[in-house]
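G., before I forget:
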Amino acid sequence: MVVGRLRMHAGLARFCVAAVTACALMALALPAYAEVAQSVEIDAQSTLSRTGSDNWNLAGFATTQLQLYSVGNRYVKGELAIDATVGGDTTPASAAADSPEPNVRFDIPRAYIKVRFPLSEALFYHVTAGKARITWGNGSLFNAGNLIFGATATNPDFTAGTIRDDTAWLIALFLPVSTYTFFEPVVLFPGVDLSGSAAPPTDPLDSAAGMRFHTQIGSTKTELAYLYNGVDRLHEAAVSVQGHLLVDWYTAVNSEVPVAGTSASDAFANLAVSIGLLHIAQFTGGSSLSLRLEALLRPDAYWSEQAEAGTDYGISLFPEVVWSPVQSVNIYLRSVVSPVDLSAMIIPGLSWSIYDGFTFNAFATVMAGEIHDAYGLGQTGGVQLATSVSFIY
Amino acid sequence: MKQFILILGLVCAAAVYGWAMDAQEIITRMEENQTHDTSRMEGKMIIQDRFGQRTSSFIVWAKGNDKTMVEFTSSGERGQKVLRTENQIYLYYPDASELIRLQGAALRESLLGSDVSYEDMTGNKGFLADYKVSLAGEESVDGNACYVVNLDAISRDVAYPKQKMWVDKKLFVMRKAEQYALSGRLLKVMDVKETMRVDGKIFPSDMTISDQLKRNSQTEFIIDKAEIGIKLPPGIFSLENLSW
C-alpha cells in the first residue's frame, strides 16, 4: 500500500516535471515578440471643499495615467500603467486643509505579465504575475464574494464607470475546465513600498493564498471561493451567485472558516452578505434608466446608533440611478446610506462624452448626517463640488 | 407558330420561375454568402447621435452562426470584449477585470452606445430555423434589383418578431432590412452601402443601422479587412480568452 502510494507520488512528480519542462520548452519555441502600444489619460479636476463651518478650500490637480501594453503576441502580454498626480493633494484630509501642499505623487496601479500555455487542443490556461486586478464575485460597490479586496471598497471612485479599481501584487492561474467552468488559484504578496524608503522586511506568512471555482448552474453564474488571509491569519470562504428573475440579481456571502483554535462565533463575527438588484429600462427616443440597489449586511456589527464616529454598522445600502438621455450623456445619483444612524453620502453628477475620448464631468458630494454619524455634514469633505475634464488618447 | 408558342411558353415559365423563386432558397443563398464557417474581420463603427460622432474600432472572430468574439481596440474601449456562444453573452471589462453574464433587460443595452443591442447578437440558428419566410415581390434598392422577403418569427428566441429584407437578385447579399416589433412598429432599419467579396463570398462591408426609437441616431459599421475560412486560434471562444 505504502509502496503503491510512493509510486503514485513518484509518478505525479514525474508528470509535474514533464509538464513544467514541456511548458518551458514550448515557451522557448514560441516567439515572444510583441509590439508596444500606449495610451494616455489626463484628468484635470477642480474641487471646492468645505473644510470647516465657514471655511472652503479650492484645489486643482491633474492626474495622468500612461499605459504601455504589448500587442501582437497571442501567448504573452504585459501592461505597465504609471499614474502621476500633480497639484493639490487629493486625499480628503489634505484637500480639505486650509492650504494643501502642492505635490507630485506617483503610483503604479498595474504592472503585470500574462502568459498562456495549451491545456488541450481546445483549451489554454494562463498565468498572471505582477500587480493586477482580479475580481471575484459580483457587485458594483458591495461584494461579499470579493475575498481578495474585501466586501466594500477602500477607496471608491463614485464618479467613475468602475467604482472599485483595487489592484494587488499577485500570481494567479486561470485554469479552464470547459467553456464556462474554471478554477483560479491565486497567491497575493504583501504590498511593495514604491517610495524607495527602507521598508521593514515583510513576513512571508503575511501573504494570502486561495482559489475560486467558477461555473454556470443552469442560467445562474456560480462561484465558490476560499482564501487564507495571512495578515489576519484567517481562513475565509465565499459563495457568489448571479442570475435573472424579473430583474438582474446577485448575492454573495462570506465567512471565516472555523479551524482549530476558532469557534463558530468567530465565523459569525466575520459573516458578511451582499445583495444586489439591477434593472435597465429603455425608452422611446433612445434614453435609458438604470436602477441599482446594493446592500451589505454584517450581522455581528452594530445595529443601533453609537456615539463614536467610524462605527461599523450592520447594514449599508448603495442605491444608484443613472439616466442616459443619449448614450454619450449620463446623469446619475449615487448614494451610500447608513440606515442605522440615518446618515448618507449623496453624489449627484453628470458625465458627458463630448468627443471621442474626451469627457466632461461635474459632480457634488454631500454628506447628510451628524458629526458622529457614518456620514456627517461637519466631517472633512462634508460638501464637495467638482468639475473635471478627461481625455484618453 | 408552334415554335413561337413553345418559345413564349419557355419565356413565361422562366419569368414565373424567376418571380416565384423560393424565399427559402433566397435566404439560404444569402446566408451562404453572409455566414462563414470561420472568419476574422477588422473594422470600425461610427456612432452618431445628436451630441456628436464617436468611432470605435474592433476585431471580430466568428465561427458559423453561433460563436462570436468581439474585441474593441480603440483607446477608449481597449480590451473590452464580448463573447457569444450558445446564445449566451459574457462581457469583460479590463479595468474591472470582471466577467459579466448578460441576462434579461441588460441584453437590450446598446453595444458601446451604438444602434445595435446585445440582443441583436443572440438568435444563432439561422433565419430559416427562427422565421417563416415568404416572397413579397421585387424592388430596386439603390439601382440594384432585389427580392423582397418577409420573415415572421416562429421562435420566441428572436429579438424581432417580423423582418423585411431586400436581397440582391444577382449577388444574393442583403441590401436593406427593416426590423419590426410584434405590434408592427418599425424598430430598426439597415442599409447596406458597400459589399465585399472574399474567397467568392459576398457580404455587407459598409452598413448603417438606425434605431427608429432613438432620435437622430445612426451607427455605421465598416469592415476594413476580412479573412474567411481561416483556422481560428484554439480556445478563442472561451472565458479564458475573454479574460486574457
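The longest helix of chain A spans residues 2-29. The first strand of chain A starts at residue 35 and ends at 50.

More on Monday.
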